[in-house]
Amino acid sequence: MRPVEIKKGIYWLGAVDWNRRDFHGYSKAHKGTTYNNFLIVDEKVTLIDTVDERFWGTLQCNIAQVLGDRKIDYVVANHLEPDHSGCLAKVVEKYQPEKVYTSPMGQKAMKAHFKYTDWPVEVVPTGTEIKIGARTLSFVETRMLHWPDSMLTYCPEDKIVFTNDAFGQNWATSERWADQVDRYRLEELMANYYANIVLPYSPVVLKTLAAIKEMGLEIDTICPDHGLLFRGDDCNWVMETYQGYAEQKPKNKAVIVYDTMWHSTEKMAEAVAAGLADEGVSVRVMCMKNNHHSDVMAEVFDAAAVVVGSPTHNNGILPLMGDMLTYMKGLRPQNKIGSAVGSFGWSGECVKILTQWLEDMGMEMVEPVKNQYVPDHEVLGKCYEQGKQIAAAIKAKWGF
């Protein structure tokens, strides 16, 4: 795909990865992704980030289409993760830039990644400004959004900010702008990306948004390194959306995630769902046999309650639930009500284990239900009442 001039003299050069489905080894990218990087043509030609190494040929072609035989003078590395720095070593070797700018933590990561000895690396802490001709570039470190090296690059003359992974989505499209695509799908993919990548760093998101406001940055274009770009009123919209994400205020919604051996736990989960739904709570019921943990997490993200279920298996829980709970705990969701259900044959540890996981995540617990072997009408009635109790707890906490 050819370069796109997003502002006079500023180009999107990225690559569209139509077939990507596994993202970073832990999350699903059902709609593919893009690797966005940018070229600013001024007295000093400046390349901002690169792309996944598999798209080195695409990057070279796009650079040549814009520059012809003109050289790249400066490279800015906002983030050293390989999908954004995968071509950095090749860029330095081929184009011989005068400077490679990165954050203080970026320098450490760059050295560890590439083992270079003679690159012209210059560290740019927060507040550093460089002139590239008619334009100025200023840098703001955003440590742990979502790596220690992360920073954003701002050009005041063009009111444009390059944000690396912040505000991104995994979506391979022929369109470049958020205002050119379906808004519902955009919001869905933004939330999925946030839930699976940015969520544990929500305090950093709030700090960064506050810093942007305090610094008085005028912004009319936001350029993340994945997915669609934002312009005009969409800049305020996406920042307000991220503010809401980071505050983690839930919807009137519950997610029931479980695995089952002989359908006993499944029956209990569905009875809990019925109790919740009959009290007006929107419910998602997700069996781990049929759902990837990243898709479950996208639903958990904005839920007010999480109910987990598993039978006892070898004095523990089923492996897919162990995977899900490990993944969820690492993402540190906040403001959740929790509960558990489980069936067992003889030892019966499942509910105790599930409850401990949720308590360790700081969830407010509603009494769990467990049952030996197959649940009868009485037990399913208890599960139904459990759902109603969870609904009451949601209403008491959030006023829905």
UniProtKB/TrEMBL annotation:
PANTHER family xref list: ANAEROBIC NITRIC OXIDE REDUCTASE FLAVORUBREDOXIN
Organism expressing this protein natively: Pseudodesulfovibrio mercurii
Signal peptide: none
InterPro entries, sorted: Flavodoxin/NO_synth, Flavoprotein-like_sf, Metallo-B-lactamas, ODP_dom, RibonucZ/Hydroxyglut_hydro, Rubredoxin-O_OxRdtase
Name of a matching Pfam family: ODP
Family, similarity comment: In the N-terminal section; belongs to the zinc metallo-hydrolase group 3 family.
Coiled coil spans: none
Protein name: Flavodoxin/nitric oxide synthase
